[in-house]
Amino acid sequence: MALDPELLAILVCPQDRGDLIHVEGEFFYNPRLRRAYPIRNDIPVMLIDEARDVDEAEHLAIVAAHA
């Protein structure tokens, strides 16, 4: 199931309130803080404690894929 476009339009990082990169079906990514917020059962988990850190290699791959 795809996420609601209206939801995608308003989602921001809960930590810095900035825009996120949507890595379809996997997570939302904040390139400024290098944090990934998971998507579980088609629901974005936008909790700071649930986010994971992203290393340099993954960061570069995500940014390149969404440029």
Number of domains: 1
CATH topology heading: N-terminal domain of TfIIb
Percent of residues in helical segments?
Answer: 10-25%
The multimeric state of the shown protein is: single chain
Q: How far apart are the first and last residues' alpha carbons, in Å?
A: 25 Å
Instruction: Note poorly predicted spans.
Output: none
Please count the helical segments. Answer: 2
Helix and strand sequence: HEEEEEH
The CATH architecture category equals Single Sheet
Number of strands: 5
Q: DSSP strand (E) fraction?
A: 25-35%
Radius of gyration: 11 Å
The largest β sheet comes out as: 5 strands, antiparallel
In the CATH scheme, the class would be Mainly Beta
Mean model confidence by pLDDT: 94
Structural class: alpha+beta
Can you tell me about this structure?
The chain contains two helices and five strands; from the N terminus they run H-E-E-E-E-E-H. With 67 residues, the protein is of the alpha+beta class. The chain has a single domain (5-65), classed as N-terminal domain of TfIIb (Single Sheet). Strands 1, 2, 3, 4 and 5 form a five-stranded antiparallel sheet that branches. The chain starts with a helix and ends with a helix. The mean pLDDT is 94.
